[in-house]
Design brief:
32% helix, alpha+beta, 4-stranded antiparallel β-sheet, Alpha-Beta Plaits, single chain, 106 residues
Length: 106
């Protein structure tokens, strides 16, 4: 098996008008966190995957846990592309995790 590190990004915009909407949002967000995704922004989560096989399996898991309403997008990029993200930080936040080092979460 060839190991080519990739990042799977989940971008979503879910309705938050009703209690049911908020429950679905919370359920989806907790699913992402329980499956090793890390929040980059409020509705942008990312996870490191080792190859195309694991990426496809993870995409299938995300598809099987979609909320009934709203928009969810999946974006797969290489680790090099992810490392070239340019962070533009304004007044609100002074610190950003900006490194090519691998993050190991236990």
């Amino acid at each position: 098996m060839n190991y080519r590190f990739m990042r799977l990004m989940v971008l979503f915009d879910l309705p938050m008008q009703t209690d049911k909407d908020r429950r679905e949002y919370s359920r989806f967000r907790h699913f992402l966190l329980e499956n090793g995704f890390i929040m980059m922004q409020k509705s942008v989560y990312t996870k490191l995957v080792v190859n195309n096989v694991s990426s496809r399996a993870l995409k299938d898991r995300v598809r099987s846990h979609l909320p009934p309403e709203g928009l969810v997008e999946l974006l797969e990029i290489t680790e090099n592309q992810f490392g070239r993200i340019e962070y533009l930080v304004g007044e609100g936040q002074k610190t950003v995790l900006d490194t090519m080092d691998r993050l190991v979460e236990l």
